[in-house]
Amino acid sequence: MDEHRELNRAWWDERAPAHAASSDYAVRRLVDDPAGLSQVVQFDLPRLGDVAGLRGVHLQCHIGTDTLSLARLGAHMTGVDFSPAAVAIARDIAVRAGLDIDYVESEVYSAPDALGVGGFDLVYTGVGALIWLPDIDRWAQVVAALLRPGGRLFVRDGHPVLWAVDEERLDAIALRYPYFEHTEPQCFDGSGTYVDTDVDFATTATREWNHGLGEIVTALLAAGLRLTMLVEHDSVPWDALPGRMHNVDGEWHLTEHPERLPLSYTLQAVKPAQ
Ligand SMILES: C[S@@+](CC[C@H](N)C(=O)[O-])C[C@H]1O[C@@H](n2cnc3c(N)ncnc32)[C@H](O)[C@@H]1O
Predict the structure, then answer these.
(1) Residue with CA closest to ligand 1 atom 8
(2) How far away, in angstroms, is 60 Cα from ligand 1 center?
(3) At residue 192, what are phi and psi to the nearest 5 degrees?
(4) Beta carbons within 8 Å of 73's beta carbon, 6+ residues apart
């Protein structure tokens, strides 16, 4: 398990600077425009509600573009990521944007040890987050531990059906990878990343785990949370199936038969007050 985590961490450490330099993350625009929001958080707005004054933690915050956006909406944000390179860049971006955000380098499963228990009104995560975690039950327990009673979880992530689709088959939507959680990771080997970049990466191996939508909901219920929203979307904020998608305002849609495949979802759950 540690061995899988170290492989993934090296992969993310090497990609973080390239992501920060890519036009897809639009860091310069976010820093320069004091009202700027990431396209991810912009998409979330109709479901996010008022976050002003909330103590929020962003799990797997990467280079902090969404964390920064939540801070601009008035939340007091802490970002957590296990990649020291991503955390260093996130800190630098926050300073350049003049925002006071706490960034903590931590494995997700250790976040309650790093941040304490029950201190957050909002746990925010997603956009390629859960696929890096081997055990959804443990993740749900972490979320429940971080939230204060009455606090809320907001997730918008790639749909587990999308993660199961064969990205190389252009003639049909075919399932190639597990939908349900699996003990052994999916082993991928590729020199690229999900943003537009010319960088030639040395790290290629990743280890990933899918979790079915029912498993995610059941894990949260078992951890004591109450489901308040589950919306499936026909778009996702990256080019998940290259050659078959087109971009509209930062969201990627299937060009043919978009009604056939859920690409992402938004889930919200609350930790009961008592
Ligand atoms: C796709 S990014 C998260 C998405 C974020 N919404 C973004 O695009 O900026 C995934 C992040 O998860 C982090 N990560 C992966 N596994 C992790 C783990 N076990 N604990 C903490 N962070 C992890 C990686 O370092 C990476 O920054």
Answers:
(1) 127
(2) 4
(3) -100, -160
(4) 37, 41, 48, 51, 52
Q: Where are the beta strands (DSSP E) in the chain?
A: 55-59, 76-81, 102-105, 120-126, 147-158, 186-189, 205-208, 226-233, 235-236, 245-248, 251-254, 264-270
CA nearest 27: which of 75, 59, 63?
63
pLDDT for 131 beyond 90: yes
122 alpha-carbon distance from chain centroid: 15
Q: How many residues does the chain have?
A: 274
User: What's the token pair of residue 15?
Assistant: 């990609």
pTM value surpassing 0.90:
yes
Q: What pLDDT is recorded for position 1?
A: 59
How far away, in angstroms, is 131 Cα from ligand 1 center? 9
Per-residue DSSP letter, 10: H
Instruction: Please tell me the distance between residue 256's alpha carbon and the centre of ligand 1 in angstroms.
Output: 30
Largest CA distance in the chain: 52
216: closest CA among 258, 262, 267, 261? 267
> Would the CB of 83 count as within 6 Å of ligand 1?
yes
SS3 assignment, position 190: coil
Q: For 10-56, write each residue's pLDDT tens digit.
A: 999 999 999 999 988 999 999 999 999 999 999 999 999 999 999 99
Atom of ligand 1 nearest to the CA of 83: 25
